[in-house]
C-alpha cells in the first residue's frame, strides 16, 4: 500500500511513482491511498470563511481525496479506481493496481468519519489494517527522520508520536500504527528508484516507523475502534 503525499501533486516525478505502482500491481496487489493535495486547500478556505461543522468538513475532505485519486487514475489509466476492499481484490485479480476513493467511507463507515481527525496518514493506516496489507509506504515531499541527523534506529525506528508533534504525521496515526501488523516505511519522493529496487529484491526500504507503546494520554479515533 502506498500513500502519495499532497506535496507530489505538482511534481512531475509523481508519474514515476504511478508507473512503479502499475508495474508492481501486475504481480501482486497494490493500493494507492490519495491525499487531498491541492483540492483540500479549497476545503480549508471554505472552513475558515464559513466556520463549517466538522462533519461537513470531513466529508468535503474525503471528496477532495477522491479528486486527487481521479487525477492519479487520469495520469496512469492502467491503475483502476476502487471504492472498497472487494473492488481492490477484483482489480488485483486482473493484474491492476488500485487507487482508493475514500469518500465511500461516508456511507460504509459513518462512525469512523464522525471521529476521524481528517488526515490521510491515519486513513492509510486504517485501510492497511482493514485489508491486512503487508506493508504501508508513506511517500513524503519532505525529509523522513531516518534521512536526517542522529540515530533514529536506536529504539527500532523513529517515534511516531514525535513525528506527530513535528507535523510529519496526523494525530491519529500512532494508534493505527499499533494496530497494523505489517511494516511501515517513510520514503522521500525522490527515492522511487531505490524503492523499486528494494521491492524487486524483497528488501526493506526507506525509513521504518516502529509502533510506539500505548500511553494513558493517548487520544483520538484509533483508540477503541475496530
TrEMBL record:
It comes from Skermanella stibiiresistens SB22. It comes from the Bacteria. GO terms for molecular function: kinase activity. Keywords: Kinase, Transferase. This is Aspartate/glutamate/uridylate kinase.
Amino acid at each position: 500500500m502506498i500513500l502519495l503525499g499532497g506535496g507530489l501533486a505538482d511534481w512531475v516525478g509523481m508519474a514515476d511513482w504511478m508507473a512503479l505502482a502499475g508495474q508492481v500491481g501486475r504481480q501482486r496487489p497494490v493500493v494507492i491511498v490519495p491525499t487531498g493535495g491541492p483540492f483540500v486547500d479549497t476545503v480549508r478556505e471554505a472552513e475558515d470563511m464559513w466556520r463549517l461543522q466538522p462533519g461537513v468538513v470531513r466529508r468535503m475532505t474525503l471528496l477532495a481525496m477522491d479528486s486527487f485519486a481521479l487525477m492519479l487514475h487520469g495520469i496512469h489509466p492502467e491503475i483502476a479506481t476502487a471504492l472498497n476492499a472487494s473492488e481492490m481484490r477484483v482489480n488485483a485479480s486482473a493484474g491492476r493496481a488500485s487507487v482508493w476513493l475514500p469518500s465511500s467511507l461516508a456511507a460504509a463507515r459513518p462512525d469512523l468519519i464522525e471521529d476521524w481527525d481528517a488526515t490521510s496518514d491515519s486513513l492509510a493506516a486504517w485501510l492497511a489494517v482493514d485489508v491486512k496489507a503487508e506493508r504501508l509506504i508513506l511517500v513524503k515531499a519532505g525529509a523522513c527522520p531516518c534521512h536526517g541527523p542522529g540515530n533514529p534506529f536506536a529504539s527500532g525506528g523513529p517515534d511516531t508520536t514525535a513525528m506527530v508533534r513535528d507535523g510529519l504525521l496526523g494525530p491519529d496515526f500512532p494508534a493505527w500504527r499499533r494496530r497494523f501488523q505489517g511494516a511501515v516505511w517513510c520514503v522521500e519522493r525522490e527515492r522511487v528508484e531505490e524503492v523499486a529496487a528494494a521491492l524487486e529484491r524483497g528488501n526493506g526500504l526507506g525509513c521504518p516507523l516502529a509502533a510506539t507503546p500505548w500511553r494513558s494520554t493517548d487520544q483520538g479515533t484509533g483508540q477503541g475502534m475496530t
